[in-house]
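Technical appendix A lists one of the benchmark inputs used to test multi-chain prediction within the project. The record comprises two sequence entries:
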Amino acid sequence: MAAAADGFRALDEAALVEYIKATPALRAQLGEQLEGLAIEEVGDGNLNFVYIVAGPAGSFVIKQAIPYVRCIGTSWPLTKERAYFESLALKEHGSLCPNHVPQVYHFDRPMSLIAMRYLEPPHIILRKGLIAGIEYPLLAQHMSDFLARTLFFTSLLYHATLEHRHAVAEFCGNAELCRLTEQVVFSDPYKVAQYNRWTSPHLDHDVEAIRDDDILKIEVAELKSMFCERAQALIHGDLHTGSIMVTSDSTQVIDPEFAFYGPMGFDIGAFLGNLILAFFSQDGHADKDNDRMVYKQWILRTIEETWNLFHHKFVSLWNENFDGHGEAYLVDIYNKPELQLLVQKKYMTNLFHDALGFGAAKMIRRIVGVAHVEDFESISDETKRASCERRALDCAKTILKERRKFETIRQVISVVQEISAP
Amino acid sequence: MAAAADGFRALDEAALVEYIKATPALRAQLGEQLEGLAIEEVGDGNLNFVYIVAGPAGSFVIKQAIPYVRCIGTSWPLTKERAYFESLALKEHGSLCPNHVPQVYHFDRPMSLIAMRYLEPPHIILRKGLIAGIEYPLLAQHMSDFLARTLFFTSLLYHATLEHRHAVAEFCGNAELCRLTEQVVFSDPYKVAQYNRWTSPHLDHDVEAIRDDDILKIEVAELKSMFCERAQALIHGDLHTGSIMVTSDSTQVIDPEFAFYGPMGFDIGAFLGNLILAFFSQDGHADKDNDRMVYKQWILRTIEETWNLFHHKFVSLWNENFDGHGEAYLVDIYNKPELQLLVQKKYMTNLFHDALGFGAAKMIRRIVGVAHVEDFESISDETKRASCERRALDCAKTILKERRKFETIRQVISVVQEISAP
């Protein structure tokens, strides 16, 4: 395919080989051994093409954005500039949390192409591991690390306001991807929309109830405004369990093409909300060999530990940097331990409630909106699937509407357990 | 003075004449009659040089930003790029509310120079009118117009999110001016700071009490975060009574060099807070001919009418545009009159509380921070001045800390009256 005027051309495998041969950084990554390259297209996401490239002396992944939503087609155009913001976020988050973000080897802006570390087997997408019922004992530890470090160090708790506004301006350029989130998370699920789908007819009444739930819609409007207006930190923007690759001892966060300066709670909530979805899907995966009861407990423990560890690590980073150059709380003003404690308690409580609100909104959209999750989709018995989905939906609505009443993650888990009880 | 490498040179009167002669837009504005120009430097603000240029067939004002804070000197540098953002805001707000914003004739970015309409006598700075005890019967009507139109049409109630983020990014460039506000409004008054001053020794204990008021400081932190993070609308950013010129039938908002996408309440609060300062200063201006009691009632009425008219006009604009392209509340979702009412009530209540918080913070900083107001400064009897200032300070602290309890502007005015009662 010939290059467009802007230098872009979508690569197929043959063209990719030529591209690699012509790109010194990629040749070097392969140890200059370009014979016998194995190339495999593995993009199972909604948006991009992803190739694994492996040679005898090195490997990497090539991710190329195309100018439309892959799972819908050219009828839903989407800027390929998202690759630029993905590369920026990978580099920024990678520098803050190198253990949990794949290294970027090469970025080509006209081609919307990123070359990055190949996450070798046994890395799999976390969502698939959750469906398979695999425990990841370090997941909460790793994800709380990632969340605490990426969010703290890109917030005004660490940034001076000048550098913050400069970074905010740069990521305002990713507005088109933000707009997609605004539509599919905060708008479409609450109205009749072309691409909405759900397990029908089982959930028809539930979907209608959402569209008629005034309290829910008022709360969602508040979350949407916060998403659109509040530049709190550089967030991943799409931190569900399909954006995380895992082994028993490695956790890698990928695909930050939705990254921008937004509310921290959106990332925390995305991860926790998708774990709750995984929890509610387990009954659909239970069989006579494995009733998944132990696994469900592990998921709940992981939710609890993730928030509690995040809280601890985030506040620790704050304490270590209280007299740093962050400008939200100047140490000359917030100058006593008891005042610092009060300030932190208020901040963390608000953040907790934001995370619950956004997490619940992300749950709802995965059941009644355009993009569903394999956790439920892989339950072939529709009645069983609908039953799992309905409980998740009820749980999400409760959390979203009542979020300000929760003081601890344990209380949230109690609600999850109550709703899941037969 | 020779031009710097960036094309900037500070103009004196002689250089200004040469500049005008060489600039077609300015020559045209003077009807090409360049003989006998009267030029007067009138900049009494803290930051810039301002010249009135009048010829036999036309006139204008030239405002030139210099790269430091004029009232402090070169020891406090400040980007002259502020003139660029001022010109942008004048044009944007001017297009939305032409009756209350002076027309821009010419902008020269390298020179940081704006030529705009000369607001001819009897226009005076509103603050001077308030000190003189002059009633402006249309002030509430005009300012509620300005606030409703400039804030509504630059918010997500009218903007699509793409255009909003694009505009937000542009104004992130004005970060240095935002930073000045952050320092002098939200930080310095609450700590020991070099340029802080107050009527001493009278208010020494009051200043100390502010630095020791944990509740106040926690609330101020929340306001500061909102100022730094929330891109709600294109705000003027410095809308005190010194940024407004008036006659009995004209109200003109000038000097938006602090403009950026920030919280709407900051503008509304700046105006209302400065009216409350004017109110508390009246006892210091009373004499045997005029006890100012009637005038104080007029100020309170103006505060009440400004908010109530703003509320009415803002909601009216919202209703007129509910099915427009604003993306905060899609009409397909917020699809019933009673739901729209609920949404608006919540929005306006939050905005009211934001305005009270920011207004109170602006009052405090004018009494204990670097930049004071002539309302108080012109009270030569220090004891009398301190007494006025202390009441204003107590009022501001109460409003700031208790703002969420207020449901109507009348309730706020009751607090003002109680605190002002002898």
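The first strand of chain A starts at residue 38 and ends at 41. The radius of gyration of chain A is 22 Å. Comparable benchmark entries are summarised in Table A2.
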